[in-house]
């Protein structure tokens, strides 16, 4: 590590063409709570005991807590709040919507019930606008969220920290659990449209949160190699050192070699210390005999 820079982290990562695949946060279960107040830097340490308590319960239940809000004007503080329970694992994707009257009801959210809430049938896009975490999300993420809200009638939310703010604007698509980065308005609309058709838009994709980073890289490499777009077409079956086994339709299989490739220094967030990047990259794809 050496020194710092005043340049925004997303501009530097873009200039260096830092790869997007393999950078999605890992975890396929979420609880998303509409929260109208200020978002602290770390959601898990929220000063509101009701939110902090939910964060603790979420960790115990294997869920990640995200705070969400609708772009634009804020509703009255006493208005009902939306809660989304999302499961994004392959073959079991679902988002359930509940409504609570206020923070006091957060303790009653059934985090262990995979079928809780009214099913959400349209894809949702959650755009990171967590300004207290990073300037790029505050500026680029907010602009994207507001642009989407002007063109899309529903299903657009701002959200707290998704990770990887150097790829801002970043967004999560539910229920598929794919994350995207360096989005512009057209690319974001295409990603959400693809999800509505049960597909993955490969461009700008960081990976599926259900897989470890090497699995994310391998899956996206196979999609680029084959043109497969169906969300559930590919399964990351095994990660064995640098080799990742990906299973496809009708027993098709690929061995993908995934290795870190050292690169130049860049900060991981605005104002951060320079760190040498070593992104995971698919260096070889071999088609295997079909798995029976």
TrEMBL record:
InterPro entries xref list: Aim32/Apd1-like, Thioredoxin-like_sf
TM region positions: none
Origin species: Pseudonocardia halophobica
PANTHER family assigned to the protein according to its UniProt record, in alphabetical order: ACTIN PATCHES DISTAL PROTEIN 1, SLL1203 PROTEIN
Alphabetical list of SUPFAM superfamilies matching this protein: Thioredoxin-like
Domain of life: Bacteria
Name used for this protein in its record: Sucrase ferredoxin
């Amino acid at each position: 590590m050496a020194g710092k820079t005043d340049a925004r982290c997303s501009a530097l990562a873009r200039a260096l063409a830092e790869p997007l695949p393999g950078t999605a946060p890992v975890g396929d279960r979420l609880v998303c709570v509409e929260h109208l107040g200020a978002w602290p830097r770390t959601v898990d340490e929220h000063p509101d005991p009701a939110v902090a308590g939910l964060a603790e319960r979420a960790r115990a239940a294997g869920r990640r807590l995200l705070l969400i809000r609708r772009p634009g004007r804020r509703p009255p503080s006493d208005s009902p709040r939306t809660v989304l329970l999302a499961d994004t694992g392959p073959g079991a994707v679902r988002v359930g919507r509940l409504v609570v009257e206020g923070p006091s009801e957060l303790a009653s959210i059934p985090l262990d019930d995979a079928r809780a809430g009214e099913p959400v049938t349209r894809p949702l896009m959650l755009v990171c606008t967590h300004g207290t975490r990073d300037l790029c999300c505050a500026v680029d993420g907010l602009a994207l969220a507001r642009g989407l809200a002007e063109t899309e009638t529903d299903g657009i939310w701002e959200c707290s920290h998704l990770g990887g703010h150097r790829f801002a604007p970043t967004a999560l698509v539910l229920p598929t659990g794919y994350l995207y980065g360096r989005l512009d308005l057209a690319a974001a609309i295409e990603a959400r449209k693809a999800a509505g058709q049960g597909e993955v838009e490969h461009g700008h994709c960081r990976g599926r949160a259900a897989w470890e980073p090497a699995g994310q890289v391998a899956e996206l490499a196979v999609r680029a190699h084959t043109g497969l777009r169906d969300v559930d077409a590919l399964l990351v079956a095994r990660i064995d050192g640098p080799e990742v086994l990906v299973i496809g339709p009708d027993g098709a299989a690929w061995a993908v070699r995934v290795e870190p490739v050292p690169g130049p220094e860049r900060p991981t967030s605005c104002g951060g210390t320079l760190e040498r990047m070593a992104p995971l990259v698919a260096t070889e794809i071999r088609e295997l005999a079909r798995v029976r």
